[in-house]
Write a structure and sequence with these properties.
The chain is of the alpha+beta class and about 280 residues long. It contains 8 helices and 13 strands. The strands form 4 sheets. A 6-stranded antiparallel beta sheet has the order 5-6-7-10-9-8. A 3-stranded antiparallel beta sheet has the order 1-3-2.
Length: about 280
């Protein structure tokens, strides 16, 4: 089956042409099965009235997000969408899954107001046993379990969090509408073996590998609003890490006679044994 070539032209939607094509294709891909073909660059040019470069740019963005696979000489095909995100960027689960062309949902397991533990109070920088909101959810994409999340929020959020629709809605969007604007966070990533409860809820084997992320998110003033632990099956979710390579300790920056900066590796600067 091939994705329908019928749809709005690029000039009938808002945004740059490649983004218009990308959005239209994401909607179509959500209704297709892995292995089905999507329109070629030439077909997109004819449908949307754009250049081949614009069509190719839109398709490359989908390929970079892992939604399609481009096979030279054969075409472009839908693949099972991954659940990966960059480790230095946090989107809501709803945003992540929607962007991947999947349908997000949640099962609320626990939602109560209770006193904070010592560890929670330390993370949120509040007095020990001060009331907090304890929220536990099973996060799903296309009805497949992706994460088991335990979130603790400061008590000031109780008025909106306790009544919000968190089965189909976004917690962070709920907080934003209530004036809690999340801006920055820090976190740690580790591995763990699935407990019996993890196995039951995430449909994995007991003792199987999990990716565990613990994060604290603050507002624009630096006040912590939430702390969350997310437990992901290792074969269904990943974090893409982008990093710089730190210079070796024995790399010494020197100046040459002309005053321009140079880099000498190994030994002291200017020493006969320095590598070049």
């Amino acid at each position: 089956m091939t994705a329908s070539a019928q749809g709005p032209t690029a000039t009938s939607m808002d945004g740059p042409p490649y983004r218009q094509i990308e959005r239209a294709l994401r909607q179509r891909i959500a209704a297709l099965r892995p292995g089905e073909r999507v329109p070629s660059d030439a077909e997109l040019c004819a449908e949307f009235g754009v250049s081949r470069m614009t069509a190719r740019h839109a398709m490359q963005r989908l390929a970079q997000d892992g939604l399609v696979r481009r096979e030279p000489g054969r075409g472009t095909f839908v693949v099972k969408p991954p659940a990966h995100r960059r480790a230095n960027r946090l989107m809501t689960f709803t945003q992540e899954m929607t962007r991947a062309g999947r349908v997000p949902s949640s099962t609320v397991l626990t939602r109560v107001i209770r006193p904070s533990t010592a560890a929670e109070a330390e993370d949120l920088r509040i007095p020990h046993r001060q009331p907090i909101v304890h929220l536990r959810r099973l996060r799903l994409a296309d009805d497949e379990p992706i994460a088991l999340e335990t979130t603790v929020l400061i008590g000031a959020t109780a008025g909106v969090v306790m009544t919000a629709d968190l089965a189909s809605g976004s917690l962070h969007e709920t907080l934003r509408r209530a004036g809690f604007l999340l801006r920055r966070g820090s976190g740690t990533i580790s591995a763990a073996a699935a407990t019996a409860e993890d196995a039951r809820l995430l449909s994995v084997r007991s003792g199987g590998p999990l990716l565990v992320e613990h994060r604290v998110i603050a507002d624009g003033t630096g006040r912590p609003i939430e702390t969350t632990e997310s437990r992901y099956p290792a074969d269904r979710y990943g974090l893409v890490v982008v990093f710089d390579v730190e210079a070796a300790a024995d790399e010494v920056r020197v100046r040459d006679d002309g005053g321009s900066a140079g880099l000498v590796a190994g030994g002291e600067s200017g020493s006969p044994g320095a590598d070049t």
